[in-house]
From TrEMBL:
It comes from Araucaria cunninghamii (Hoop pine). Residues 80-109 form the UVR domain. Residues 115-234 form the SnoaL-like domain. This is UVR domain-containing protein. Pfam families: SnoaL_3, UVR.
Length: 235
């Protein structure tokens, strides 16, 4: 069943579907289509939509559909876009290729902004020693790993959360101050990683240095950390 998401609750009485290629970034401020097959080029009365499509409505204004906040309801696949772009180039459909190229760049920029925001949030939570929020930032399951400085590899969500509970124990002088330097990002599809230098002030004017790698995976449109590896750097 095709799923359509109308962002504005004032769905027009007649909904026209232009010829599109998946995925589609809607230009209209009145509503957003999540997906649309390339063959649809007809009008459907609103009262018949539920007979043919699964429709989800979100109350809001046109402004809500703009920017990253509005795009979070859109599901796009980078690999599908790349495949469509290659096909457009191979068939010498350069107009379509240019559009797909722009959509791919927009998706990549959005993913980059989101994974950077997830990384910043991770360190803000680290600084505060907020265990409850830390639980929400990690991907669930046994495929997650954490390597604290000077320690071995901890695998599995539950054991990792236990390690953070120990890290945030009473002997840790909270809040910390963590400054990040040399931040680099790489993203491919639903996986991305960030490397950075952590400068951590533990107490007084004492600073520790760690080089860190954080790997994130995209689940249901959100980025969750699935690996944190930090190693001490000798002063």
């Amino acid at each position: 069943m095709l799923e359509l998401q109308f962002y504005n609750w004032r769905v027009p009485k007649t909904c026209r579907f232009p010829t599109l290629l998946m995925p589609f970034y809607a230009r209209s401020k009145r509503h957003i289509w999540r997906v649309a097959p390339p063959s649809l080029t007809f009008s459907v009365p609103r009262n018949k939509l539920h007979c043919q499509f699964h429709v989800r409505c979100f109350k809001g204004s046109g402004r809500d559909a703009e920017g990253p906040a509005g795009r979070e309801h859109l599901v796009f696949d980078e690999q599908s876009l790349e495949a469509e772009l290659k096909n457009a180039i191979d068939t010498e459909n350069y107009t379509q290729a240019a559009r797909l190229r722009d959509e791919l760049r927009l998706l990549q920029e959005d993913n980059r902004a989101r994974i950077l925001a997830a990384n910043v949030k991770f360190y803000k939570v680290f600084e505060k020693g907020d265990l409850n929020t830390m639980r929400m930032l990690w991907s669930k399951g046994d495929n997650v790993h954490c390597i604290h400085p000077g320690a071995g590899c901890i695998s599995g969500y539950d054991l990792i959360m236990e390690s953070w509970e120990l890290t945030f124990g009473p002997e840790l002088d909270l809040p910390l101050q963590i400054d990040l330097q040399n931040v680099e990002v790489f993203i491919k599809g639903n996986l991305g990683f960030i490397t950075c230098l952590e400068l951590v002030r533990t107490s007084g004017n004492n600073w520790g240095k760690q080089v860190a790698t954080n790997i994130f995976e995209k689940v249901d449109g959100n980025w969750y950390i699935c690996l944190h590896h930090a190693s001490h750097i000798a002063p």
